[in-house]
Write a structure and sequence with these properties.
It is a single chain. The chain has about 200 residues and is an all-alpha fold. The protein folds into two domains: about 100 residues, Orthogonal Bundle (Rna Polymerase Sigma Factor, Chain: A); about 90 residues, Winged helix-like DNA-binding domain superfamily/Winged helix DNA-binding domain (Arc Repressor Mutant, subunit A), CATH 1.10.10. The longest helix is centred in the first third of the chain and has 21 residues.
Length: about 200
């Protein structure tokens, strides 16, 4: 989840855009950096590329702040800018076919569980989480991540995925229905908890 409330972020954004306040800019960066990094890794991009894209995104925000008065949804704008920057950086490093393969393979590395629990338990949990995730499309995995792990609203998700808000709402509903069909309530609850834990660990491992 985002470190600060939406109200706090919006207040800092207003102060940054209108006054160039350095503390506000720093607060915005700290609110988003971990979640952006985890999001980029889960999109399939290399960790060093994610770090570069974060720095580039915030550098661009800083130097172009006077042009950002039109931005109404800070969270959606930052996530979308970051995702676009990741794609731009990737285009410089790989051919078009490889880029498509990366951007269409939203995934989660369940092997990080090995760092947390014993091998027998880890293997069982990995199979459970992997089974649920493998039954979803890349877009379905991404929408679950953005909604339940980052805590974004449907409007923000729609902006990031370049779809209508109602389409984002339907995508999430159908995804959760699909997950419920695949697992019991207890299994789904445990898997979502583990999913969140894995994404958190990706920032540090």
């Amino acid at each position: 989840m985002l470190d600060n409330s939406i109200i706090d972020v919006d207040l800092h954004w207003k102060s940054f855009v209108e006054k160039g306040d350095h503390f506000s800019f720093s607060s915005i960066y700290n609110s988003y950096v971990d979640n952006l990094y985890s999001y980029g890794v889960s999109l399939g991009f290399r960790r060093d590329l994610c770090k570069d894209a974060i720095q580039d995104t915030f550098f661009k925000l800083y130097i172009h702040r006077v042009k950002l008065a039109h931005v109404k949804n800070t969270t959606a704008y930052i996530f979308k800018s970051f995702k676009n920057r990741l794609i731009d950086l990737s285009q410089k490093k790989m051919n078009e076919e490889s880029l498509v393969a990366v951007t269409e393979s939203f995934t989660v590395d369940v092997t990080v569980l090995d760092h947390l629990i014993n091998s027998e338990k880890a293997e069982m949990l990995k199979r459970k989480v992997s089974s649920l995730l493998e039954g979803l499309t890349a877009n379905q995995r991404e929408v679950v991540y953005l909604k339940y792990m980052i805590g974004l609203e449907h409007k923000e998700i729609a902006s990031i995925l370049n779809i209508q808000e109602e389409s984002a709402r339907k995508l999430l509903y159908r995804t959760m229905e699909k997950l419920r069909q695949q697992a019991s309530d207890d299994d789904l609850s445990e898997a979502m908890t583990l999913f969140s834990l894995i994404l958190m660990l990706q920032r540090f491992l």
